[in-house]
Design a protein that fits this description.
single chain; mainly alpha; two-stranded antiparallel ribbon; 73% helix
Length: 401
């Protein structure tokens, strides 16, 4: 699967004559309103919603897991997956606009299900895509994110030395209420909240990571050399014959990169179809910037923070992704833990909002608008369930979906 996905990224990069070359033009277009265009939300609103769904725990915990399992070289492979994944995200955005339809209520519907039905004439495959999207959303985009927030807030001492943390059922209720207040207003409500939340959380996290890299400045050059060296090292990873360091780094780096930026997953084009744009190419360029910001910038800077922190503090636990994250950020006095906690909280909450729209449109394709009210109730309930459920059960559910 990893070979097929990365292979698709590379094929589309060559076939489309390197759309990555237009990434800075695409960034400029994303903040310019497209006049005389049709759609439900602005192009920036669609991009922010897409980023809200993709920038999540995978950008922090996911990168740490890749480093723990695949070594420092996994950071480079994760970054390369983002570079080539820009072409796939471009393709998805273009097809979303080309095959979108307008409902009787005047709203836009689009995404892989419409490209499969109208472009490839495979209605059965479109139905399967929507079923899988709706099921996956409750795992990837809901319960595991709510659980991450509740777990962080329940940590003793988080709000001072005498604090015992917030019980998971209380944080679960608060999250469920906040999510309900946002999704009741549909895509416009989600886009408005994400449009405010995404720039804040991204800028805050990136600036925070820059501060940490400043603290680790003397180890930064060494960290970059280790990342490049182990990304292409042919020595055995375990001392046996199970695989080279290169194979392990590539396997986990590529897998986490794809999990993080969702290029090729088919989720982002669902919201891209709602964008106010005059033609498919314009929105395709804007959609491609999501992969750039998600992986080429945020995942890369997270990887540099983790590897440089490990070089600076050899006592950090390297074997567990979650522990690696908390230990690496926690070594920086005052700011380290704050950056991590605020980053995880905002990233996870925005992912719940973004994925709620994906599941809604998948169910609308399958059963029409009449099921949406029941779905929204189920989504809010699942936020509470995910927050209060056992950690291992929630992550197993997410992996399966």
């Amino acid at each position: 699967m990893v070979i097929l996905l990365l292979g698709t990224h590379i094929f589309l990069t060559i076939r489309l004559k390197f759309p990555q070359l237009y990434i800075f033009k695409a960034i400029k277009l994303s903040v310019i309103k497209d006049k005389n265009s049709t759609g439900d939300v602005s192009q920036f609103g669609a991009l922010a919603t897409s980023l809200a769904a993709t920038i999540g725990t995978g950008n922090i915990i996911g990168v740490a897991t890749a480093v723990a399992l695949g070594g420092p070289g996994a950071v480079l492979w994760c970054w390369m997956t983002g570079i080539f994944g820009v072409a796939t995200k471009y393709s998805e955005g273009l097809l979303a606009i080309k095959y979108r339809v307008k409902t009787s209520r005047g709203t836009m519907l689009g995404g892989p299900m419409y490209a499969l039905e109208k472009g490839l004439k495979m209605k059965w495959l479109a139905v399967l895509f929507c079923i899988f999207t709706a099921v996956a959303a409750f795992g990837i985009g809901n319960s595991v994110q709510a659980n991450a927030i509740a777990t962080i807030l329940s940590e003793p001492g988080l709000f001072g030395t005498l604090s015992t943390g917030i019980p998971t059922y209380i944080s679960g209720l608060i999250m469920a209420l906040l999510v309900a207040l946002v999704i009741i207003f549909g895509i416009k409500g989600i886009a408005n909240v994400c449009g405010m939340l995404v720039p804040f959380m991204a800028i805050f996290y990136v600036l925070g990571c820059v501060i940490i890299l400043f603290y680790n400045g003397e180890y930064l050059g060494e960290a970059i050399r280790v990342i490049f060296r182990e990304a292409f090292s042919l020595k055995s990873a375990t001392g046996g014959i199970t695989g080279s360091v290169l194979m392990m780094a590539a396997r986990y780096g590529i897998a986490r990169g794809i999990f993080s930026n969702e290029s090729g997953l088919g989720s982002a084009p669902i919201v891209a179809a709602a964008a106010q744009t005059r033609n498919p190419v314009r929105q395709a360029l804007i959609s491609s910037t999501a992969t750039f910001w998600d992986t080429v910038v945020i995942c890369a800077i997270t990887g540099l923070v983790l590897v440089s922190s490990v070089r600076a503090h050899p006592d950090i636990n390297y074997s567990d992704g979650a522990k690696l994250t908390f230990n690496a950020f926690g070594k920086i006095p005052y700011v380290g833990s704050t950056i991590l906690i605020v980053g995880l909280l905002t990233f996870a909450f925005s992912t719940i909002l973004g994925w709620s729209y994906y599941a809604e449109k998948a169910l609308e394709y399958l059963a029409g608008n009449r099921v949406i009210v029941y779905y929204k109730i189920a989504w809010v309930v699942m936020v509470f369930v995910g927050a209060t459920a056992n950690l291992s059960i929630v992550w197993d559910l997410s992996d399966v979906t």
